[in-house]
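Good morning C.,

I know you're traveling, so I'll keep this short. The sequence:
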Amino acid sequence: MFRGRTHFLAAIPLALALAAPARADTVSTDYTVAQGAWNSGGTLTLYSRVREEAGRVAVCGAWSMGWEASGTIFLNESVVDAAHLSIAGERIVTGLGFMTRLPKDGGIGGTAACKVTGAPWRPEYAAAEPEVRFPRMVFIDDDISGEKHVFRQLRN
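The tokens, ready to paste straight into the viewer:
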């Protein structure tokens, strides 16, 4: 009877360590850039990188908006939440909403939030660039206009 509880309690520190956020980082020229645009105007730029932290993959990133059409300014968070990051062909994390939102047209020098994932670090990750994929998203205004806003990833 004790034995089952002991194993359960021993697993708690490991689970907490995997869920803990990593230390923040500063966006630099070492970051990979992914961009997207709205058909109705406005852009989204996301900066990302991966690093090893305690034998796991830590994902760091931040994002900013460029000029925005009034209908898309609040939709960018939905796009970031639905995006995913891969490295060396392996999807590491889906949902990048933990990343820092920078001021308009922010970027290099801004603060990036980091998250330790459950993926183990592999040596080939050190030389690989992260790849961010935004889904194609369509939003239709609920107001009288019914304007359609379509987001698409731009090629880098």
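Safe travels,
E.
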